[in-house]
Amino acid sequence: MASEKKAFVLRIQPETLKELERWAQEEFRSVNGQIEYLLNDALRKRRKQKTGGTDDPPEPANRAD
């Protein structure tokens, strides 16, 4: 079952976007995939920090967005 994704507008500094583009390319992801990966990673770490637990849902593999 595929999960639906919500689209939204992101305003970002041009320099930040260029750096994200380079980083995404290094990790064979699209910019969108890289942003989603970073957000999921930050949320996972935040949940772990708040609960002290390690039971996290698996992260989707979005390498070819």
UniProtKB/TrEMBL annotation:
A Gene Ontology BP annotation from the UniProt entry: regulation of DNA-templated transcription
Residues in CopG-like ribbon-helix-helix domain copies: 17-46
InterPro entries: Arc_rbn_hlx_hlx, RHH_5, Ribbon_hlx_hlx
Keywords (A to Z) from UniProt: DNA-binding
UniProt-annotated stretches for the region Disordered: 43-65
Transmembrane intervals: none
MF annotations from Gene Ontology: DNA binding
Descriptive protein name: Arc family DNA-binding protein
Native species: Spirosoma sordidisoli
Phylogenetic lineage: Bacteria, Pseudomonadati, Bacteroidota, Cytophagia, Cytophagales
